[in-house]
From TrEMBL:
InterPro entries: ATP-grasp, ATP-grasp_RimK-type, ATP_grasp_subdomain_1
Keywords: ATP-binding, Manganese, Nucleotide-binding
Organism: Thioalkalivibrio sulfidiphilus (strain HL-EbGR7)
Highest taxon, organism lineage: Bacteria
Protein name as annotated: RimK domain protein ATP-grasp
A molecular-function term among this protein's GO annotations: ATP binding
ATP-grasp domain sequence ranges: 75-263
Length: 263
């Protein structure tokens, strides 16, 4: 199996993998065409590699196109699992949109930048002035209800498996549960309905490398978002060897993988 990676960090430890800098892509066309899989391309490479060179990518092209843009992601989730999406508005930044947001939500509410990760670009909006200030610097308003939670569940999908699931809890008085923002990991009593929802969505949407953030409200799971390039801080304590999982999945090369839950 010939593997060619464009991200040395993400592919570290995967056997038989050669690294190529993304900016050198056009100088190594023959090597790219000969590869069985292309791993972790930069987002700007994806269309050329998939549509021009007709190559198999990991993560999948669906993972890239949905996972890197919350607008696309949310619209896909509205179609796939509408009962599991928090109330959300996606609007142009106009005075009329501000009024619609005010008519729909109470404070505090959550505003997100369409392209962000690790808690960056996410704000808890407490009042009208904060809403106006955000709107003044953003062309698209992605507004979401604030759910009554103090923690969320990270469910990690790699290949055709759910490889990890754990709680993330914000620091005392904090808003962000992200580990990169100081969140605490809790591995006990992870709700199975969160894991099964993610397993189903990943299979349906053909997502093969993502960390899904799931909120639980009275036992009902809501998908907050998923990140294609997730941190592995919660995987190491569980003994998940990411490189081995990826290599095993790529070796199988299943055209229509069936998602499994790893206990």
């Amino acid at each position: 199996m010939r593997l060619l990676s464009f991200d040395a960090y993400r592919s570290f430890g995967i056997p038989d993998t050669r690294y190529l800098k993304p900016e050198l892509m056009y100088r190594h066309e023959a090597e790219i065409l000969a590869a069985d899989w292309l791993l972790f391309p930069a987002s700007w490479q994806v269309d050329v590699l998939a549509w021009v060179y007709n190559k198999r990518l990991f993560p999948s092209i669906q993972s890239y196109h949905l996972g890197h843009d919350k607008v696309r992601m949310t619209r896909a989730l509205w179609a796939a699992a509408p009962a599991h999406v928090p109330e959300t508005l996606i609007l142009p930044s106009t005075p009329a949109a501000l009024e619609e947001i005010l008519d729909t939500f109470s404070f505090p509410l959550v505003l997100k930048e369409p392209r962000s990760a690790e808690g960056r670009g996410v704000a808890l909006i407490e009042d009208r002035q904060a809403l106006r200030d955000w709107a003044a610097t953003h062309d698209v308003l992605y507004a979401q209800e604030r759910l009554p939670i103090e923690r969320d569940v990270r469910v990690t999908v790699v290949g055709d498996q759910v490889v990890a699931a754990y709680w993330r809890k914000a620091p005392q008085g904090g808003f962000h549960n992200n580990i990169a923002r100081g969140g605490e990991l809790i591995f006990e009593d992870v709700p199975p309905q969160a894991v099964s929802l993610v397993a189903d969505l990943a299979r349906r949407l053909k997502i093969d490398h993502a960390g899904f953030d799931v909120a639980l409200v009275d036992g009902h799971p809501f998908i907050l978002e998923f990140n294609v390039l997730f941190g592995n801080g919660g995987l190491e304590p569980l003994g998940v060897k990411l490189a081995d999982v990826i290599h095993q999945y790529l070796s199988r090369e299943t055209p229509g993988p069936t998602l499994q839950v790893v206990s």
